[in-house]
Predict the 3D structure of the following.
Amino acid sequence: MAFDGIVVADLVHEFRNELLNARLAKIVQPEPDELLLTLKTSDGQKRLLISADASLPLIYLTDENKPAPMTAPNFCMLLRKHIGGGRITDIRQPKLERIIRFTVEHLDEMGDLCRKELIVEIMGKHSNIIFCTEDGKIIDSIKHVPAQMSSVREVLPGREYFIPDTMNKTDPLTVDAETFKGLLREKPLPVSKAVYTSFTGISPVTAEEICSLAGLDSSIPAKEYPDDILLHLHTQFAIYLSAVKEGRFSPAIYYEGNEPKEFSALPLTHFVRYERREYGSMSEVLRTYYSTRSRITRIRQKSSDLRHIVQTALERNRKKYDLQLRQLNDTKDREKYKVYGELIHTYGYNAEEGAKKLEALNYYTNEMISIPLDPAKTPRENAQRYFAKYNKQKRTFEALSELIRETKDDITYLESIQTALDIALTEDDLAGIREELVNTGYIKRRFTKKKVKIKNTPLHYISSDGYHMYVGKNNLQNDELTFSFASGSDWWFHAKQAPGSHVIVKANGEELPDTTFEEAGRLAAYYSSMRGSEKVEIDYVEKKHVKKPKGAKPGFVVYYTNYSLVIDSDISKIREAAD
């Protein structure tokens, strides 16, 4: 994610439109490092959430209210005393720093008009909310930073506020072409890294975008490019940032399927594999992005016990599979022992008493071979010994072949569960997978032997041609889709020889267009273990040709005739139905 100076500039632009001249009606501190300001504007009441959390610093407008603690923290009480009821007269960003300065006008104890500054620093683990006088003296901060914590800057009451220039970065909004070239050339770094380490507020993603717009290989050091190329890069740099100067922002989130991968305030054209969704404001982008990411993270945390069960079972079965293959390899000479027995029966009369070997013609290959003999045994006994060895290895081979097939089926099934866990988006999805693992014996059912009824529906998409496409999110749902929901003339899709979802396209008795076949193939590729691959082979066939063997595990099917296509796993252009 790129919470860089450009995103902050967009937020400042939004706040200036929404919050200038707003009055601070309420100040609460829901968390030790978080403020929620309720503001009265000419358009009604608005809330501003400010978090200086080291792992996730944020600032955005929100509709959500949060309960205040019974006893307000000292910092909150201080803000209420000084600027409660005050009016925001200015909101600005110094250069392109990840800093927002709110100027608040209020009346002091004597009734005189004065100003204070609430400074929000969105700087990762160094994030802070600092309250200052108009002339820059720190009154207090939500986090105190003594000299023992930082040799660069103390953040304590009574100290002077300043922005530490630890990276010696230049303001990208004012840099000229010659300075730009000089800064890049003096750094022995790839050109994209030279850009974001030289200028304030430029993230690696933004630097990559500027290099892409200029048509440059971002991995080549800047010093290897001639002057005219670096001048061209500066031109693209200036054009890209002109939108910041002019307030022309286009906040958006970039999705891979349903998962948000990145957000930005300006277009990122080099993100060709992701779907770009625009939003009305950067606050809306941040709310959506972090709530979605939080939900995905929460689901992954909740699925950790299931993942552990599946991974443990997988490792056990893979070890078993390797052992069985080695044991099977020990039976590879079984046919040789059968031939030895037959040849001793045929030519044993030629062997001298006490002989250690028999030279005989192998009538299967028409070659002479040497057969080891036990000199203490008769030819008949030697033949019986080889036949016994052959029969033992034959029985072992047949038993192991069946065991290996069963173990391989178990591995394939468990890999399909892993894929289902990767697809899961809700707690209902996890409940469905857990129930499946209970039914297949990988988890013991607790408290009751009754099956759990899971309210869960498959994913639903609509093709460009208007056909409904459904995706199973786990093996039980795959079975239901294929054998209960789909009719015989509907089309069935699945990634070839890879764990993944069954995809059903409702054909309505019509011949499907090529575009729908391609989009269904992309869904099958994306909702499989091949997600992210540019070329995935997909099997597809009319549903009536798909069969489920008796006693097979959930999700396992067979088909003996099918078509195939090779497709990418990009579903960003496929419309999800609004069920």
Q: What stands out?
A: The chain has a mean pLDDT of 90. DSSP finds 13 helices and 21 strands in the chain. The longest helix spans residues 379-423.
